[in-house]
User: Fold this.
Amino acid sequence: MYEPRFRRPPLASVRNKNFQRNFEDTPKEDESVCNTISETYKEFAAISTVHGLKYTVHVKSTWGKIFWTLVIILSVISATQLAQKFYIRHKAANMRTLVISNQYPSWYFSFPAITYCHSTIASLHRIEEALTTGTIRWPKDYTLQDLIKNLVFLREALIPTNRYPNQTQRLQRFLNANNFSLLELFKIVSLPCEDFIVLCRFEMEITPCEELLTSTLTPYGLCCSYNYARYNGEERYSYNLLIFTTQMLIQYSLTYLLPHRYKNLPEFRSPDFGMDFTLSVLVKSYPKEDRLSFSMFGQGTKIIIHERNTYPGPSAQEFVAGFRQEVIGAFKGTQLIVSQEIRDLPVEERDCCMSKPDSLYRADNCYVKCREKIIRNYCDCVPFYASIIYSNDTICNLTHVPCLVEHKSKYEDLNFRDKQCGCKPDCEGTTFKVSTSSLDFIAAEHNPADFYQTSLEYKNPTAIHIGYASLTFMLQSRELVLSWINLVSSLGDVFSLFLGCSFVSIFEFFYYLGYLMWKLTRKKKPKAQVHPLSP
Assistant:
């Protein structure tokens, strides 16, 4: 039988051979990409201004290429580390405080606020005066003697310790029976301004105290302040139609009780200094039997000197005028201003806050608000002397003392850098330093001035004089020392030292990077050869 010379191979065999031939003829894609990258790198290294790159290509030995590669890697690491240090240094030391003048006239500066706080916070004669009005109601099994004994522990409302829970609970019973808040109780039992400050002398002239002093609330209780002007917008209330009437009543009552919170007092500047005291007051003394509760263990008056727009806080200067003493408080001031370059910086870079045209920023006020916020969050109340009282706030009473003691460390150990506060230092402002001197008050025997002769009408009075220590203040300015130009120069020196590169090297890198991407995208894949007999 005749057999043909040519036998058609099976179709599957043809397909396998075609696939093998096409696979062998097509270049591997990975090898092609690697070759493109290698060629582009060799071209870049040959003409780059970065020192050392060309040796990784031109050196023929493998060990030589490894050596230069390690040199370049170490140089890049060293340059990066040093550049990071330069950047940290730039962030930490880009501003300096410079002394502009030590002889800046003091009358160019606003006079500070002066707050007087008597050590007695519950007085026996004040209770007797309240009893004459007949408005006090007595709980069951509660007498005047019980009230007098329990008022000794009224200090817990200012400095909570929770060491006397039974006594404070009994005192709270009295408050509940009369529907009194702690503020109302303090107004009844504490010494008002006209009760313990009996004479005022302003710029060496006798002046009625009611024209100078206003009743204020501080962490020491009810106090009396001169030149204390709370800034607008600090007291905020919730504008809700459901509580609109309540909000109006609260605002009216606060305005009546605490007029300083809504006063916009003009700034006062004094040319007096030395023995020409700006403000002198005569403080009346009471016998120790009249002193039921107190904020200080000693008998005297605490004087707080602070910036007029600042709630008495961490930067306030304090001293105590003792019983039967004549005390002189002489203060010096330092004014800090900032340059326009710092004003233009973001808050994160200048690391301090500045006042805006519509709001006044003070670091002390921020700290106080943060403290009150923490108390509000943990104990669901705010102290009666809080700087901000919202319309829906609950005022702390004696039942909140255990909670305040439990969380005391959370709101007492704060600082301006605490994350939960977010308070930054003041970019500008005035700070004061006070030096005091005191001696026994016997000047009335030798000085015929009306201020001293009036003191003879009182038993064991105290005289307090406040004024500038000198005719001059210190003026400081916060200037920008290291700008972004210095940072760029420093970084350029670092990379030039280790790599010898320049600004042009950046363009070279991005040019060849774009060139490489273009070559990779433009590179065509080889077409597969299909056998005519394949389907």
